[in-house]
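Narrative summary of target 7.
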Amino acid sequence: MLDLKRVGLCVRCAHNRVTANRRGSQFYLCGLAMTDPRLRKYPSLPVLRCEGFELDEQSNDQGRENESHE
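Modeled conformation, tokenized:
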């Protein structure tokens, strides 16, 4: 649940790709931004509204599992 509050919609978006640097920082890359100029490649977090958001069913299932363990 912490990631959902800190990151927002990107956590459950089908277009999201998480990348990390050598120091361990994580960045949320929007794959849809490559073809849609309205979107930012690395959006400011948390993302509360997004024109390109599409629910990723796998991340939605994982989110439910994580919420039940907290």
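DSSP finds two helices and two strands in the chain.
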